[in-house]
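Subject: sequence -> structure tokens, single chain

Hey, anyone have a minute? Need the predicted structure for the following. Not urgent.
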Amino acid sequence: MSKKYYPLNFDLAGKRCLVVGGGAVGERKVKSLLACGAVVELVSIKLTAVLERLAGEGRIKAFRRGFEESDIDGVFLVYCATNDGELNRRVFEAADKKSLPVNIVDQPALCNFIVPAVVRKGSLLASVSTSAAAPALAKKLKKILAAAFDEGYAPLLEFLAEKRKIIKAEVDDIALRKKIFDALIQSPLEVLFTSDGASPAALTTEDDDFDFGEYKKKNPAVIKKAEKIYIDIRRQFTAGGRV
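Reply:
Had a minute. Here:
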């Protein structure tokens, strides 16, 4: 029977994360960590051209040498991506001994966390895992998820996030807030943003942030309709749309 993993989403912004191994796999891990705002430290004698560039630009701190156990001091998370079995075990044991999240790529037995297949649409993060039992199946399921979530979910989430802040600031009654939130979710907003008439026209890749401001400029008609839906729902629950 496969292990039962506990799903978590880490906030890595500003947190030191260590990557051991400067090859193609290490490069992918570095880029994914940077995309989440992590402070990346890399230990490897050799680096890919991309990693050399990132180090030269000061976007990562690279130590061009072998791994030392002190490298994990003060870090939040550890990745190891090498083909050296002995080194992989050393990194795992050093990190696990200090109760740090550690992942030795493609070696589930030397991991205390695994990474799911991920689909990003702006703030939407959908993930699927087979608990390391069949990674190839996870990749297939990822494609299904990617097809299921239209690009329009990125602006939809940003719009809902904006309105949620307003509602929380203006509506003191928690039960009433919930009714308004639920009504927004059940409203035509989802269809509006995911219809063919809307043009996401923004960054929704894993490495970039969705630009809602740019979306608003390119889709004024969609935003106007969305605002009307929001105002109508507020008026259903509050006099004049305010509390």
